[in-house]
């Protein structure tokens, strides 16, 4: 059984998405950039490629985190730039991702807009903005947009978070959650 694989995810800003998935156990690498699919979705949209160890974290875990940390049920006007998507690399992954999405739909008040698309092409972000949160955790953008997503991660998925990958100021949240369990 293959223990390392990858999936591409698009939702909100790729700085936010990158930070969320960099904080997870079992995630080996996160590539930030732009992903394209095929046909009507061949334009590039902000996304990440998550390389992960399936013995530590599952595709189901990754998709669940993804759905809860971006506006996965909002068909807002910026969806062309921030396509809510799971990009698959194989037919098996396509089937598994579709099943997972259907499993989680009942957890949401509104219909999920997240779609399953075939991965076609990736363009990496320029070096200056890669690992944005890790380089700039105190910048206003990070405080306003990324920290709330990491707080969701800590409250709902604490067992998946690698403590050493989150900033000190957020570690107190993880400790409080662990103390209450």
Topology summary:
Layout: E1 4-10, H1 14-22, E2 27-36, E3 45-53, H2 59-68, E4 85-88, H3 91-104, E5 115-118, E6 121-124, H4 132-135, H5 140-156, H6 168-180
Parallel strand pairs: 4-5
Antiparallel strand pairs: 1-3, 1-4, 2-3, 2-6
Description:
The structure is a single chain. The protein starts with a strand and ends with a helix. 34% of the residues are buried. Helix 1 crosses helix 5. The protein has six helices and six strands; from the N terminus they run βαββαβαββααα. The chain has a single domain, classed as Peptide methionine sulphoxide reductase MsrA (Peptide Methionine Sulfoxide Reductase, Chain A). Strands 5-4-1-3-2-6 form a six-stranded mixed beta sheet, with helices on one face. It is an alpha+beta fold and 181 residues long. The longest helix has 17 residues.
How would you sum up this structure in a few lines?
This protein is α+β, with helices and mostly antiparallel strands. It is 37% helix and 21% strand.
